Automatic annotation (TrEMBL):
It is an enzyme of class 1 (oxidoreductase). It comes from Curtobacterium citri. The lineage of its organism: Bacteria, Bacillati, Actinomycetota, Actinomycetes, Micrococcales. This is Arsenate reductase ArsC. Its EC number is 1.20.4.4. Pfam families: LMWPc.
Amino acid sequence: MTATPTILFVCVHNAGRSQMAAGYAQTLGGDRVQVLSAGSAPKDQINPVAIEAMAEDGIDIASNQPKILTTDAVRESDAVITMGCGDACPIFPGKRYEDWDLTDPAGKGIDDVRPIRDEIKTRVQALLAELLPAEASA
């Protein structure tokens, strides 16, 4: 693990779950982490309900753009967190891989997206607690 770990969040469209996770990781981890997000089949824009849900928690992801998953993004990451993209993510030895089983917020209203957002926040907090030294996260 490098001094500043790089976390890659991946979902199919890179428009909801991975964008929310990246928003939390960047906000909560600050300059102690590098955060990337990508999708195996990215959409052309971020899910507007995901943007709204994150804004409710004070995080602005409205200017983010979905990105295609690349082998280089996986190679340069210390932790790769997938959310429903199956085998689309290349595997490299020595990396931490986790698959978070989260409901896709696509097509859902704000009342259905809030619990997904809250679960993502909880998981990101736990991940950061594991990746960052205790004295840095105090």
